[in-house]
Each structure stands twice: as C-alpha cells, then as structure tokens.
Write a structure and sequence with these properties.
Layout lengths: L3 E5 L3 H12 L3 E6 L14 E2 L13 H8 L6 E3 L4 H14 L5 H12 L2 H11 L6 E2 L3 E5 L2 H18 L4 E4 H7 L9 E5 L3 E3 L2 H14 L3 E4 L6 E3 L2 E6 L2 E5 L1 E4 L5 H5 L9 E11 L8 E3 L4 E6 L2 E5 L2 E3 L8 H14 L4 E2 L5 E7 L6 E4 L6 E5 L5 H17 L19
Parallel strand pairs: 1-2, 1-14, 2-10, 4-19, 6-16, 14-23
Antiparallel strand pairs: 3-9, 5-9, 6-8, 7-8, 11-12, 12-13, 15-18, 15-20, 15-21, 16-17, 17-18, 22-23
Keywords: Oxidoreductase
Organism: Pseudorhodoferax aquiterrae
Protein name: Amino acid oxidoreductase
Length: 414
Amino acid sequence: MSATVLVLGAGMVGTCTAIHLAMRGHSVVLADRRAPGEETSYGNAGLIQQEAVEPYAFPREAAKLLRVALKRGIDVNYHAAALPGLAGPLARYWQASGPAHYPAIAQAYARFIAQAIPEHAPLIAAAGADDLVQRTGYRWVFREQATMAEALARAQRLHRDYGVQHHAMDAGALAAAEPALKLRLAGAIHWPQPWAVADPGALVARYAAHFARLGGRIVQADAATLQARGAGWAVQSADGLLDAEHAVVALGPWADTLLRPLGYRLPLFVKRGYHRHYRGGPVPTMPWLDADRGLVVAPMQRGVRVTTGAEFAPRDAASTPRQMAGAEAAARELLDLPQPVEPQPWRGARPCTPDMLPVVGPAPRHRGLWFNFGHAHQGFTLGPASGRLLAELIDGSAAPMVDPAPYAPGRFGA
C-alpha cells in the first residue's frame, strides 16, 4: 500500500532513499535547506568504493596513537577543547575496533559495501550520469617500501577474505602509468573495482532530477521544524506545512541536532574534512591515495581535488588551516598544482557511529519515524544501497537486500 513520506536531507543518502520510495509507488517529498548534493555529499573524493569492505577502525598500535596525539602527521587532526565531549563516543569506537567486536562489524559492513556498485549502476543509467563516471578504479601510491609491503599484505588478505581485486605496481610501472607524477615513488596498489565520479555534487543533483521525473517533489524546508502531527509527521517548508505518514531523517552530521529534542541520545560524532581544487597542471589518470601522508588527489571537473583525512572537532567550529595546508604541500611534492580554484578550502563533516556501521531503520520510540544516517566515510558509496534498504523496511519487506539487524537504531539502546 502506498504512503506519503517526508525525506529530510537531500544528500546522497536522502536522495537515494527518496528515489527508492518513489519507485515503490509512494508519494515522496525530499526536503532540504539547500539544493540536492550541496552539503556533505559534495565534499568527498568522489569514489564509489567497492573495495572498502572494512570500516576505518580506531588505531590500536601505540606508535600510531602517539603520532596522532603529537600531531606529527596530517592524516588526523583534533581540537583539544573538543576531546572531553568526544570521550564517550571515542571510547566506544576504541572498544568496537578491538578483536572481540571488529570481525563481526566488518562482516556486516562488507555485506553492505558489496551492494554499492550494483545499486549505483542502475541509478547512474536512469539519471543519464555516465559522463560523470570513470570505471578504472583508483590507486594507493607509496613513498616508502615498508608502507607498501604492509599494505600489500592487507590487500592479499582482503582478496582472500572478500574477493577484493588489486594489482601491485613497482616504481617503473607507476611512473609509466602516471606521467603527471613529479617524484619516483616506491610503487602503488591499483584497486580496479571502485568507480570515480568527476563531480560528486552533480551526481546527487542528477539523481534528484531522476527522482523528480519519477513524480517526487523537492522542496526547501527547515528540518528543525519537524513535529509529530496526528498519526504522522509535518515540517514547515517554503511551500507551507507539509504532512506525511512517515518521516525519514537522512541529515548526516545534523541528525543528532534534530533527534535530541525527541529524546534520542545516540552516540554520534563527526569527523571533519577539507578539500580544495587546483587547475593549470597535469592531471592524474585516476584518483590517488598518498598512503604515507594520508590525503587523496582526484581529477574532477573543477580541477584536481585535494582532500584531507579526518579532523575530530565540533561540527561547526572554525576551520583549522593545518591539515589542508599540509595536504597541499604533500600534493605539490607529487604534482604541479599551479592555481587554487576556491579562495578558501571547503569544509564538511562526516556523520559517524562508534561501531562504524550506519543507522538504518525505524526510530525505537516514534511510529512512522525512520533513520538513515551515520555512514561515516562511505555515505557517497552506500547511498543507493542504504536508500533501498530503508525503502524495503518501510514497505515491510520480508526479504530485504541485506539483514538489517546490524544497522538497527535500537542497538544503542536509544
């Protein structure tokens, strides 16, 4: 039976949720304060990471922890004043990353990741977005032989355990494949399965246009006005008050702000990140991860995008120049980056959970309220799969695409 649904948040996750609900015959309104794809989904490396079968675990090695604590690298940064507020979620993140919990988490994560490209592919075709997608994978490039040897051992394990494909490249092969490189590096690992998107925000916008062609409605609205109304939910929009039987919270790093007044205390936190584009120099043939420095360099329509690692800080705190400056300096060692496009780097926040799994399913204490957020580094990758799963749950499917239990909101006792 069809229903009316409000989807709050027009990033990759919310837009794909709206599409899958519309495909099932529901009357769907996609609401956001900005146009689709202009927030978190805009500012990533543009990768659909079919190879990312294991989530980012909290480091366990003392040397790595000391390096982060002393800010000796640029891959991780933190605001000291934010640490007391992050202590609880980070302690749970540490615990979930340990050997007693991580293997089961990784299995649940891998099952979801396996659906990433199979779910993106039909949407890319339906949205007419093939021009944005490069299907040649991406590379981890290495400055040090020791780092490469360690990564190769992990790649071999991922192939054995999950079937992830990879190809090792020595220094000569990498130099021949990537003439834009200024340095002769130790080598690379090429992951052929991921797809690279030349404009992540544009892909979300194309998906949103496809949603509109399916009969969906896109409106400007303030999610903070969400309220229970009768047997359903309502939100104030630029077009007036909108009512629906169901409401989906797909607000990424803003989900916690909306849910706390409703009584939910999910242990959410954010990892912030930065990027900037550069034009005028040679362009890589595909995205690279500089594995020894912790930044990604990706060819995009706006230029070469340099993206940083993770910053632990309040979502809306002032930008910190340290990471982006370090990433730019490291990228300039590898490439000519003559001209920055933006006057200032872009900054965004990734919505994270302590157990590294997204939150997908019904709100524990409110009928007709649904959650779809907490995808951390992989919201862009998992948006279509996560959107389909939630649509199946709203429909009451007896056989959803994956077992939803590991992602259920109630697992945190909220």
